[in-house]
Amino acid sequence: MEGRNICPVWKELEGRGLCCYWAVRKPGYELTAIARSLGISVSGGGIRVIRGGQVAKDNDHRPEK
């Protein structure tokens, strides 16, 4: 799995957070696989999941169906 295939906005910090959040929380990908594909640490991925959840909640973002 490559980071670019997870979400088209993967380079942006907010976008990475949303991608990590949606990938881990919704379809259930493993955080280790997401972190590896984005080239970040697992702890960094965990932080992005938390931030992405907050961004999604604050801005009413939802993944496209």
Short overview:
This protein has 65 residues and is an all-alpha fold. It has one domain (3-59).
Report what the structure shows.
- The protein has helices at residues 3-6, 13-25, 31-38, 42-59.
- With 65 residues, it is mainly alpha-helical.
- It has one domain (3-59).
- Helix 2 crosses helix 4.
- The radius of gyration is 10 Å and the shape is globular.
Helices and strands, with pairings:
Layout: H1 3-6, H2 13-25, H3 31-38, H4 42-59
- Biggest sheet architecture: none
The run of helices and strands is: HHHH
Gross morphology: globular
**Mean pLDDT level:** 77
Number of strands: 0
Helical proportion, percent range: 55-70%
The amount of beta strand, in percent, is under 5%
* Low-confidence blocks of residues: none
Evaluate the radius of gyration.
Answer: 10 Å
The structural class is: mainly alpha
Domain unit count: 1
Distance between the termini: 20 Å
Q: What is the count of DSSP helices, taking H or I runs of 4+ residues?
A: 4
What are its keywords?
single chain, mainly alpha, 4 helices, 65 residues, globular
